[in-house]
Write a structure and sequence with these properties.
Structural class: alpha+beta
Largest sheet: 9 strands, mixed
Helix content: 25-40%
CATH class of the largest domain: Alpha Beta
Distance between the termini: 56 Å
Number of helices: 16
CATH topology of the largest domain: Protocatechuate 4,5-dioxygenase, Chain B
Radius of gyration: 24 Å
Low-confidence stretches: 1-12, 481-493
Number of domains: 3
Strand content: 15-25%
Mean pLDDT: 91
Number of strands: 21
CATH architecture of the largest domain: 3-Layer(aba) Sandwich
Length: 493
């Protein structure tokens, strides 16, 4: 495509970025494209989202492959209203550092023109890491492929199109801060990404047996870190596995940009192999939504619970007394006073120093944290009781548990996202969500190790065992004062 000719000034001095995907990645006419997108949206399973919808992750393959997955994300937009949509898309063809924003007034699809928020783009381009890389956009599909879904699910929005290139570790928080300046209650964020690209075509063959199962396991660990808003863990996982998630940089930038009290939820997941029946070369697709869940603890509530745990531990080690959390001393919100299970974990020099908790919601949360801070420091049978001299050397982490849910459908268990409790006869054992994630376990290994934690044989989960799953909102002193995403756990709980 001769971009210098096709990207031209139109009537009213509009600089339009033309469609390069019509007739290939999606249909060429407004009628056929609109019909396809509408059908995909109508067939997508509605998923209940709690709280305000802040962001989406959506795939960017041709619609015959990833359209169903994308539709599950965009269906969540129907009935909602946004004035601005910021799309973070990976650059597959440009080798540049930072972010590219084209100085155009509109993007074109067969469904019409999408207006660009030129004021926001101009403001962003004042940052040294955000400039214009026209060559990178010549063949790029990852941003345009999102637009027809936006056009059919939203009205009256302006687009902020950002193509993400190479990023250094320090670029993520710097760019996130710039993007945050353009975000308000009427702004939606979207990260465009496919997931694992498996096979010789992509130069990625980490395994050659049980391919469908292992691809799903590989992706499940990445998805768990994304849902937990853990950009550092996500980037570390990508680096350690060599995972071929093409939009990992836009995803990590999105995670840096979202508020700490956001909550991720998987909407749909499958692979191209499930469609074609061919796993010699296969690509995974996932769609996720991020909401601000009013039921989750916010930053100040987390800090309050960490303060209660720290003050409790030090007072008990110093005097043997149990701290009473009174309203005059701590801001005990309704969420802190509700009954909920929780664990307190102590880490010293990067190693576990104690971990005790309650699974069931027996006491108010602040009392559960108080009691288990004492138990972790002085009553974990795996360790000698701590001394007051050690108090300054340990880091506290609190994990607040959701209610237990019994399951018999193993496919429902999300490794890295779910913790697990297995009961059989008088034996029971529990592992928190990040244990499996940090050790890169697959589902069977997770089940076997939970059995071992319960004092059972590894295979006992197969017959006669009760299996319960839960999620955990985990936060640590390591970053309680920085506003960074919560630290997520220790390997040996």
């Amino acid at each position: 495509m001769d971009f210098s000719v096709s990207w031209t000034a139109r009537e009213n001095r509009q600089e339009v970025r033309p469609s390069i995907l019509k007739g290939t990645w999606y249909p060429a006419t407004a009628q056929s494209l609109g019909s396809q997108v509408d059908t995909l949206l109508q067939e997508a399973k509605p998923i209940n989202l709690r709280g305000a919808l802040l962001a989406l992750i959506s795939p960017h393959a041709g619609y015959i492959y990833s359209g169903r997955c994308a539709a599950h994300a965009y269906r969540a937009l129907i009935g909602r209203s946004y004035r601005r949509v910021i799309v973070l898309a990976p650059s597959h063809y440009g080798d540049f550092r930072g972010v590219s924003a084209l100085p155009v007034s509109h993007y074109e699809t067969p469904l019409g023109l999408v207006e660009v928020d030129q004021e926001a783009v101009k403001s962003l381009r004042a940052h040294p890491l955000i400039e214009t890389q026209v060559e990178a956009d010549l063949k790029e599909h990852s941003l345009e492929i999102q637009l027809p879904f936006l056009q059919r699910s939203l009205q009256g929005f302006k687009l902020v199109p950002l193509l993400v290139g190479q990023l250094a570790a320090e670029d993520y928080p710097a760019l996130a801060q710039e993007v945050q300046h353009q975000v308000d209650d009427h702004t939606l964020l979207i990260a465009s990404s496919d997931f694992t690209h498996y096979g010789p075509r992509f130069g990625y063959l980490p395994f050659e047996s049980e391919v469908p199962y292992r691809i799903r396991t590989l992706d499940s660990h990445a998805l768990a870190r994304i849902e937990e808003l853990d950009p550092h863990g996500f980037l570390g996982y990508v680096a350690s596995t060599g995972s071929t998630i093409c939009g990992f940089r836009p995803i990590a930038l999105l995670l840096h940009t979202l508020p700490e009290d956001a909550h991720g939820q998987l909407m749909d997941y499958y692979t191209s192999g499930e469609i074609s029946g061919d796993y010699r070369n296969a690509v995974s697709y996932a769609s996720l939504a991020f909401t601000r869940d009013p039921e989750l603890l916010d930053r100040e509530e987390k800090r309050t619970l960490l303060s209660i745990a720290r003050d409790t531990m030090e007072l008990y080690l110093r005097t043997g007394m149990v701290l009473e959390a009174e309203f005059s001393q701590y801001p005990l919100t309704d969420k802190i006073q509700r009954k909920q299970g929780a664990f307190v974990t102590l880490e010293k020099d990067g190693r576990l120093r104690g971990c005790i908790g309650n699974v069931l919601p027996i006491k108010p949360l602040h009392e559960t944290v108080r009691d288990n801070a004492i138990n972790a420091a002085a009553r974990d049978p795996r360790f000698p009781a701590m001394t007051i001299d050690e108090a300054s050397q340990v880091t506290l982490e609190v994990s607040v548990l959701s209610p237990l849910k019994r399951t018999t459908a193993y496919r429902e268990i999300r490794v890295g996202r779910h913790g697990m409790l297995i009961k059989k006869g008088p034996h029971s054992g529990l592992l928190l969500p990040r244990v499996a994630a940090e050790r890169h376990w697959d589902l069977q290994t997770f089940l076997e190790n939970t059995c071992l934690k319960a004092g059972l044989q590894p295979h006992d989960w197969r017959e006669g065992a009760e299996i319960y799953i839960f999620t955990a909102q985990a936060f640590s002193e390591k970053n309680a004062s920085t506003g960074a995403p919560p630290f997520q756990g220790l390997a040996s709980r």
